[in-house]
């Protein structure tokens, strides 16, 4: 009798997502969803649009003073967002 290799379901799903190129869009969606938590409630209130294009997170902020504050913190925010998903997804944040 031969032994079958038994793998955990999480590992099987991760392999499937990598093979079908579904892991990056999922992680991008998780970054967009975690913006409110990472940036804080004040920034979340003044944020209207968020999207990722070519490893750049674009965020539309309505308050100019808040936009200036977030510009100074953008490297920190980028690192926190990438750490939230566990991989390097965004290389830059632009505020529009």
The main sheet orders its strands as 1-2-3
Assembly type of the chains comes to single chain
The topology string of helices and strands comes to HHHEEHHE
| Overall 3D shape | elongated
Give the radius of gyration: 17 Å
Helix content: 55-70%
Query: Structural class of the helix and strand makeup?
Result: alpha+beta
Nearest-integer average pLDDT: 93
Number of helices: 5
Largest sheet: 3 strands, mixed
Task: Indicate the low-confidence ranges by residue numbers.
Answer: none
Strand content: 15-25%
Can you give a write-up of this model?
The protein is of the alpha+beta class and 96 residues long. Helix content is 56%, strand content 18%. The chain has 5 helices and 3 strands. The longest helix is centred in the first third of the chain and has 17 residues, at 23-39.
């Amino acid at each position: 009798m031969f032994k079958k290799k038994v793998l955990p379901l999480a590992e099987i799903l991760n392999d499937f997502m990598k093979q079908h190129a579904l892991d990056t869009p999922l992680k991008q969606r998780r970054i967009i969803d975690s913006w409110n938590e990472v940036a804080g409630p004040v920034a979340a209130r003044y944020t209207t649009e968020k999207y990722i294009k070519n490893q750049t997170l674009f965020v539309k902020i309505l308050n100019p003073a808040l936009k200036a504050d977030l510009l100074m913190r953008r490297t920190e925010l980028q690192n926190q967002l990438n750490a939230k998903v566990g991989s390097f997804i965004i290389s830059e944040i632009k505020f529009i």
